[in-house]
Amino acid sequence: MTRAQQVGVIIGLAIVAALTMLRASDPPLLRLGRNLTFDEYQRIKPRSYENMPVRIVDIDEASLRELGQWPWPRNRIAALVDRLSEMGASAIAFDVLFAEPDRLSPRNVVRDVAGIDPSLLRQLPDNDEIFAQAITDRPVVLGFGISNEGSYRPPVKAGFAFTGESPFGAPPRLDAATPLRPQLEANAAGLGHISLNPGATSTVVRAVPLFLSDGEQFFPNLALEALRVAQGASTYVLAAAPEVADTLTDAKIGDFVVPVTAAGELWLYVSPDRAERYVSARHVLAPGGASPEVVAAIEGSIVFVGTSAAGLQDIRTTALGQNVPGVSLHAQTVEQILSGHFLSRPDWADGLEILTIAVAGTLLVLLTTFVSPAVALVCGLLITAAGLVASWLAFLYGGLLFDPLAPIVSGSITHFAATAFRFLVTDRERRAVRRAFGQYLSPSLLYRIEHTRDALRLGGDDRELTVMFVDVRNFTEISERLAPTAVVGFLNTLLDALSRHVIANEGTLDKFIGDSIMAFWNAPVDVADHPGKAVRAALAMRETMARLNAEDAFGFGKEHSVAIGVGIHTGIACVGNMGAEAHFNYSAVGDTVNVAARIEASCKDVHFDILVSEETAKVLPGHALLEAGMLALKGKSTRTRLFAVVGDEKLGASAEFAELRCLHLKLVDALRSRVPNRKILNAAKLKAAKFPGLTEFYRRISRRADHFADPGKSG
Q: The pTM is what?
């Protein structure tokens, strides 16, 4: 063993030890990667939806439109309980807080009215009393939330028994809760907390706490209470780890045993959100009674009452990436328990992953140092494949969660470090030759020659590009009144300022053509969100032009402003080295390039400075875009739909632009039907005055009615 190899092994093993200790400390970034891996497993193989006796009575948008805005008076909630009880619901759980008195109760409404006889108040109905009476002796579970104020603890309606060491320190801490109305709290058959991820930094709900604890008492969550009440059970039996305090292993609720994490959480194995889970509240409260289908869905089911209405802000994100009502996660908790399909991460999983990092890392260091980096790479790939397959099979067949990501990343870092050391120490002669040739060739060209086979051959590859053309408006008129040297100075100032935005947004400057710029995105390397970055570059150019004109950077006087037109299109083009064997350029050609150039020319017809094609507009969600019509581009047999870029996502989300977009859609409909609507046009003009460049766009839009006509009816 040479001295260089000895040093390489020592450094490699030190890196392996550092990575092993890093994994043992389990920092947030590693936990995030692990969770994202487990999310991906669920997306590949989500829990199959089974028609369980679990339903959600949804206070949806349709129910709010039909029955009135939220909160509903509690006599209506009482009517909902009556209907569900009559239909035979085995339990009714409310994912709703009833902490305040019902402000819509007749007694509360008239209490502060001057001159009302106090005896009359006592005769008026109280909705809270009606609701409390409705839930009496019925299987109703009410929810409570976690509070940061006070010291209130709700009563516990069930008993708790546990085996092993004391587990009271295992669940998340409950210091205070939101107090419920006393008569509701007393009459409910069960009380459960509705918090889905207390204290979590992630918005994704991956595990739900089945219990909270104040150090002396457990408080079950809403789903468990609903399951307990539905079975008529009176006690929770918790299994704690033997000889380890404050650690839970499973919980028994009636006939069901649920494996939990050490903190008493249930890993959610979610299924895609399905309409079959939901019954609209308006169908339950239908004046003529519920339909037979609704009765059949409710009968014998555990019913959760909650809301999917966006305005009530109870939307959560699942491991599948879906945004669902929070009540659906309570329902899925019970579904998962009834189905017996659980996920679990064994206590020894961390130890196995740490050992894998240490063993695999040591093997890779020895192989890289004494055999070859290529052999080490092959072995590393085999270990990676085996780890991925084993982790996936454990999830697929056993519901076990093992992290393949940390060992793979650690192995990659180890292999890279060992290979880099070998390269630095043992390949000095080769690097000396490379440095010598580097005196005669540019570093970038040398790199391409070294790493790309046939890098100097002519030809290209087809790939998706976003192409931009920028042109100066009225350049001929400008150049006629300037000396040639002044024209060059003007172009240098302008093109330098504009081209910076292409580079800043990861674009490739193809060429300068007189007073025009051609640029493209997504070559020679992949660029994420390349249409969005092209548009951001165009918007930055608009701001730069406004600044240059305001500063009179061209010396024309502030009354002579310079304008540009920008056309952007996304599509397939051929990109690569083009020209002669001895002299070539890296460029792009094809119909996509031609269309982008034609779109830029159409800015004159549309009277707006930035236009994009429909293909580009489709991948710009949230941007402030307005349809500019369907224009006949030179060389195209069919018309092309174009969109004016008014601004970015922030502007697109503004209320003012939403009003303009609504007016614009109405105006486009009028232009398509060829029915003039001067009122809408004038309203759009007034609103457009607040946005850059739209005044002239709307002033001339009625002259372009043919651009909005149905192409199938033209001619």
A: 0.57
